[in-house]
Amino acid sequence: MRLLSKISDILDYAASTVAGIITVVLTTITLAGVIYRFVLDNPIVWVYEFTVVCFAWMIFLGMSMAFKRKEQISLTFLSDALPEGARIWLSRVILLVILVFLVISTKEGLAVSKSTWYQVYNTVPISKGLFYASLPVSAVISFVHILVEFLETFTGSEKKETVQSGVEV
Question: Taking each helix axis from N to C terminus, what angle separates 47-69 and 128-155, rounded to the nearest 10 degrees?
Fold first, then answer.
């Protein structure tokens, strides 16, 4: 369990670092695109396709980061109304459904990425498969995070949330 948790931490660090780098690159390229288009009247033709690939990676890496931090969107009105034991079992079922979804996403994402790997964008020499690879890569990272959370429901080693001034921290 500790090893899996450590792997989860390393993957999260890597995803956060890559997402940060992509954010800086994306901001720089977008700003340059705007300057070239509206100030210099000479647009950079590859900016759009490049930013689409960057956005896909940011979105899916952000998904994995949200799973790691347990910050994904959730409706809790049902689980909040349940007793503690039922809440734990509901959490386990939900986590299992997410794990199954991530396995399917990985399988299908790999298939699409593989089938488009040799297709290249028109204005930038990047494989279209790289765009689609963002889903399975992030799904695998997310799977590790969710698996750790799922196993923690059985070991009881999950970090307990404390309530301070009516705000969960």
Answer: 0
